[in-house]
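IclR family transcriptional regulator structure dump, as promised
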Amino acid sequence: MAIPNGTARTTPSPIGLRRLDPKEGKSSVQSLAKGLRVLEAFTAEADEMTLSEIAAAAGLDAGTTFRMLNTLVSVGYVTRIPESRRFRLSLKVLDLGFNAIAHKDLRDIVRPLLQTLVDEVSEAASFAVLEGGDVLYIERVRAGFTRLGVDIRIGTTIPAAVTSIGRAILAFLPENRLERVLATPPRHPSPTLKTPDRATLDPRLDALRRDGYVLEKSVITPDLRLLAVPVIGADGWATGAISVVAPWSQSSDEDLKARALEPMLATARHIARAQEAVGSTSSLVNA
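structure tokens r here:
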């Protein structure tokens, strides 16, 4: 597609599309904002448009719109309509919304159940799912006002094979999906967190399948003791996992297991039943 001759006059920003503020340039990425404006230009009434129509709707010049469209086409969010000069959004755009909705649904399901678990065991608890090669923390509930020495927040991603909560999911995946997850590069590789090789990982997964849980020192914060169990769906495969953490100096393996394992297994069953009832998506998003 050739670069258009000349540039179109920038039109006023349509209703619903916020005008870019030059004063925000130092704290924002203007090119990203322009790309989003191009996506937002498409509507139910204008689902297919030419470059000039998109430029007018987005309030951008034709040259900028051309570059934004080329980028969005190359990454799969916009499609060129064959044998025409028109563009439309691809189904990949829907994935962004569906993933956000799915995770919100999971949080709505999980949070009250995690809160009940935390109230019972008096330790912080988390719920995570797989996303690509990582484990993604969907929900986390503290025990009272206690802040543990660990920087795990909602939305945190860590290579799945590195963490106890991630391995609790990996141990209960079909073999072909396990291989695919392990072959997927982590989103944010960490030089301090070494991913175990298969010779080290496989015996750990076998032990998890045998015992149904993992109890060990946290690899992220060594002064924490961590217990993790999978959430198993109706098909017998993991849809996520729960973890409970306790200060290393204030508990033992036997104490944490005695206090938390049965309540965690019960919570995992409740989450699995709730997911099945509402048809929630499983942990295998992008796996």
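Residues 92-121 form the longest helix (30 residues).
lmk if u need the other ones
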